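#structure-requests
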Amino acid sequence: MPRRPEDTTVLLTGANGFVGSHITDALLRNGYRVRTMVRVTSNRQWLERKPVEVVYASLDEPERLRKAVEGVDAIIHNAGVVAAPGKYHYYRHNADGTRLLAEAAHDAASGLQRFVYVSSEAAGGPTHNSRPRRESDPPQPITDYGQSKLVAEGHLQRFQDNFPITIVRPPAIYGPRDTAWLPLFQLISNGWLPLIGRHRQLSLTHAQDLARQVVLQMEHPDAVGEIFYAAPYDPVSYEDFGHTISKVLSARPKLVTVPDELIRVGYPLVHPLIKLFGKPPFQKDKLPDVLAPRWTISGEKARNRLGFEGKMPLLAGVGQTAEWYRWKKWIESPRDRLKKKRGSHTRKRKVDGQVRAYDPTCDLCALAMDGEVKTPLHYEDDEFVIVDCLICRVPMAVLKEHRSSFTDDEKQRLLKIFADLFGDKHHPDFEQRRIPEHAHVHYRTTPHLLPWQKRV
């Protein structure tokens, strides 16, 4: 990608969805001009206010596709279906849709600099031994969805001589805006941690890390003609994933193990009933995926060839996701329910030998007074605790006493502590956004920016 980002127009399909909206943010942060391709009926809530061009087209509309690709310098193809009523729909949207988009790009003859396809680990299939799957392993998809993704990759191989192609295969993805993992967060917040069998393992990646790898594959010359798995961190067990969610929510769920055979036999029977009352956790055709013992992949190739490193390890990523769900009121923590039941109620409590105001429904009181520090501790004295913010990933100072503002003397003392610990070129952000009743401050390298705004 020799052109400057500000002179480069990137077409992104599926830009309105969970993953696509994070790729949109990553492109905008890096200064690219973004043309988003969505269907006329698409929900565009995650694109609101973002400085993007919107074109309306579906993957089965060749004429609209040709107009969508006109004048673009790169294409990131993220659109597709992960749940469908039958085999035909997977192949129509994932395989044939990818072929039609590539044909439109070829017909445009516009000197396309890169075509990035967001495939899936399902195209490679589950892991059959203790070693995470690598790109060199022969693909063995076990569902129609995985097979349709693999066929789509095959269609793209025909265009390798026409424009540079690179493929990314993400594993299970989580993060803000996701609804697939939301039921698990909700169950854990309500005191239940269900496990299908025991000792199952999976690779996970945070949506923001995946978006960063997608953009890097679009830019990096060594990505051309290659497939990369997106797994910057080691696999985890489903149980560890659940316990991490429990930790960030301060929940103590009851572990419930569901035998494989019960799922294998019972789920197809109850699936129609679940559909009558809500949304099933997964389609019946995904049963082989759910029952596979290991979905683990290696990110070694992306790390060695592209220099890609993740920025959202599991604890931080799950913490950020849980806080976002709480902010949207999609889940409640035990403290949220206590606050709803009894309201905020400040009481006196002895902390470090001093009597301080304390609210048992307040997250920051728990962090400052009960030691619920979910990130490495940077600093603590009799007035402040400084930790990494789970949301912003920057140092955050919390006043130990439950009150809504710092005194001027406390602010000056904090600025000196921050400067001693992290340097004096940061930006203290004293605006109370998420928990306005409790004094805290973020210490940023840049002023507060929206997720899609360009960092300088």
